[in-house]
Here is the input.
Amino acid sequence: MPNGAKMLEALNTGQVDVVLIALPPGSENAVQLARRLREESPVLIILLSSRREEADLVMALELGADDCLTKPFSQRELLARVRALLRRRQMDARAGKAQGVRAYRFDRCELNLNTRRLITHDKAHTALSNGEFNLLVALLGADERTLSRMPFLELSRVHDHEVYDRAVDVQIMRLRRKIEGEYSKPRCLLTVRGAGYRVGVPVEPVY
Here is the structure.
């Protein structure tokens, strides 16, 4: 990216797994960018330093970087570091230790939790109400479990109390209209008679 603004724009409009930030001597802008990025996003960060001083490594760790490389380094080494970080994150996710899911991908759709944007199968950016967003997050994070209304309500109350009682049914209907190709015959958001709701397609968390 040519500058920090472009990088932040890319993070807000798509999915980024790893960010590389160069730290030339005396670069306050790069330091501020790394600090802001860590405060706003769980994305993996690798800092690239032009000096081999211990202070640079200490600063990188204090900024919350996941790794630090000092120049000169080969593309092969950089690629190996990136793969190692991604592998570690996947292992943490399988062990239930991962924090800060950034998005969920399902049935050619993607829900970005940072921007609260839903990208549907036709690549359209679809607006969600708070209630719709909270319910969808609860369903996608339920690991294929069926959620009844009451646990569903508790899990979905992330940001507010808009979702309540049988309003869940209305929110599900609205979500189906926005997500399903044919909402009268849903395949993503399924009703389990007498039990609640569940997701009927594979869900991929994005960390």
About this structure: The longest strand covers residues 18-23. The helical segments are 4-13, 28-40, 54-62, 75-94, 130-140, 149-156, 167-179.
